[in-house]
């Protein structure tokens, strides 16, 4: 079964970029311990888009859903949505879903 990719696409106003990156710099670091988690990258836009991508890869959809229903909530405490948390740095977000069709790594 192929891995799946879930990308959280964040629209971040220029003046919020530093705030966003700082939040990720002090992220919970919990996702690494989630069953079925394979990869995470925070991608800063350079050219072609102004949206940050939070790239995550998972063994399967069930692993991602399990993370969303549990650890994700704790990992986003600093993201700001209610009750004294800081305001969100992103003005919009949307999730893109993919299946890995092919992949390659360098020959060692
Ligand atoms: C409203 C939508 C979302 C926003 C605005 C958002 C923003 C953020 C921010 C600012 C952080 C840094 C930690 C913090 O301050 O909370 C974070 C962590 C993270 N986000 Fe999101 N996020 C959202 C939903 C998602 C979704 C749907 C995914 C999955 C594709 C995702 C993947 C991650 C991961 C993997 C981390 C690191 C968690 C860890 O270290 O354990 N986020 N997010």
UniProtKB/TrEMBL annotation:
Species: Streptomyces sanyensis
Compositional bias annotation for Low complexity: 84-93
Domain ABM: 4-95
Region entry Disordered, spans: 74-94
Name the UniProt record assigns to this protein: Mycobilin-forming heme oxygenase MhuD
Pfam families: ABM (PF03992)
Phylogenetic classification of the source organism: Bacteria, Bacillati, Actinomycetota, Actinomycetes, Kitasatosporales
InterPro entries per UniProt: ABM_dom (IPR007138), Dimeric_a/b-barrel (IPR011008), Heme-degrading_MO (IPR050404)
Top-rank lineage group of the source organism: Bacteria
